[in-house]
Amino acid sequence: MVSIAATATSATLTPLKAGTSVITFTSGTDASLTRSFTATISQPFVQSTTVYPLAGQTTPATGEPAAYIDGRLTISFDVPPTLATTGSIRIFRKADDALVDIIKPIGETDAIGFPGQDQVRVVNVEGLITISGTTATIVPHHAKLAYATEYYVAIGNGVLAGTSIGGIAFDGIGRVGNWSFTTRSAPSAGLTSVTVDDDGPADFRTVQGALDHVMKNAGAATPVTINVRNGNYPELLFLRGKNNVSIVGESRDGVVIGYRNFETLNSGSGASQAAGSGTPAGGRAVFLAETSDLLTLDTLTLKNTMLRSAVASSQAETIYFNNDTGRLIAKNANFLSEQDTLQLKGYAWFFNSLISGNVDFIWGGNRVSLFEDCEIRSVGDTTSTTSGGYIVQARSVSAADKGFVFLHSRLTHGPGPGPNAGDVPTGAAAATYLARSPGLGTSDDNVAFVSCQMDDHVVAPGWAYNVAGQPVPNPAIATAASGWREYASTDLSGAPLDLAARVGGYVMTDNDVASGFANRAQIFAAFGGGAGWNPQP
């Protein structure tokens, strides 16, 4: 299967034929020391010489003079093809037949960031080749195509099987098949406002394409706006080191940025890594934002489509905002997942937005996160018909930080995204807790609900204080300054709730609220060493 040429310090393996084998190396000085690995050699890639009538069958069209470098490729057939688990689709530069990308049906990784970026987000990815009806969609790896360059697409025989184009049996496509296109010229580097559209005229086809452009070309502090037209954007996002970025959707429900990312696929909260290091460590969120200040998400939906599962770790954030001193603004937006929907550090202001989930769906090691005039929706658990879950798990950096504050917001419930999730229990069967503790002595469980409306899915004790196996919070005894706090809660009709049954929380007084929780200026007063922050709608 392979030949091996060894020297004193290295071994070169050359593939000879397809197959899978375990290769073991034994130390020349200690026979008990061995290292083994499994090598899989695929069949050599052979380009088909068949020519098909491709007019109207591909995107980009054959001969397209201005294709998007971040666009998806599609090819349509006479009947639905069958997608194999082996083989590959390849993209070549036409001028010299240089191979620029290899796309496989399964087992793929990707590095998200602009070419030349020192830190990128490396992740495992799913579904780079998918089939819907008679059309196959192919997603090139990120940033593989260059501007103003001609390419052609080659599909290995058997990757898309059992079909035809124009009555000609499909055995792959090669250079002579002439699925070729030329990419458009680069947008001006000086643009501070760019447009994204998944199918209409725009600067970019993907939100990440636009983020790459502004990260590469705009000054770190230069305000930029990414205008996203209505459409579906199935992608993972990465922002690093660029401040004052606003991503503004055409409509709240019409712009849907989403992906199925989760703990089993990409473990951990995630972080960027040096470009060229290939081990995926980019985390399970749809959007990873690092070292960036004043990121604004406005009038859009950010969605993690992972459903909670009994067989897979289901932590699945929509966004991980990772900047202990940075600010995130979310206005008129939806954030949808089941578990760990929002992971926040630093300072965040959510206004007139919907956050939905079931388990710890608002959490993180934050300073202050204010949810003002928001809907906090507990949804049915895909894995259970009895669990209403936990809304917050706070890991605030210090006791002095206000933590997670909910001001004039509504706590509601609804059916889960899974086919059998149903609604969360209510009334006597209510099973939703305002918060539970991570049980850490190194962070503070700082949560405050101020003048919020709550439906009857919230249990009478309110807080998961040493119940159902949950630990005692830190601090164990809440005060006006720290811990689990609540003030003037009502039902959805505005009738005051009886908070006497609450366990483990502190009921704030009028003076407590007036002195620090009455409005966003007070709540963010500690930002910038006391300079304060008062963002506006």
What characteristics describe this protein?
Immunoglobulin-like, 537 residues, eleven-stranded parallel sheet, 4 helices, 4 domains, 4% helix, single chain, mainly beta
Describe this structure in words.
The chain has 537 residues and is mostly beta strands. The protein folds into 4 domains: 2-41, no CATH class; 58-183, Immunoglobulin-like; 187-242, no CATH class; 260-267 and 281-529, Single-stranded right-handed beta-helix, Pectin lyase-like (Pectate Lyase C-like, 3 Solenoid), CATH 2.160.20. It is 4% helix and 37% strand. The chain has 4 helices and 46 strands. An 11-stranded parallel β-sheet has the order 20-21-24-28-31-34-37-40-43-45-46, covered by helices on one side. Strands 22-25-29-32-35-38-41-44 form an 8-stranded parallel β-sheet, with no helix packed on it. A 7-stranded parallel β-sheet has the order 23-27-30-33-36-39-42. The radius of gyration is 26 Å and the shape is globular. The termini are far apart. The mean pLDDT is 96.
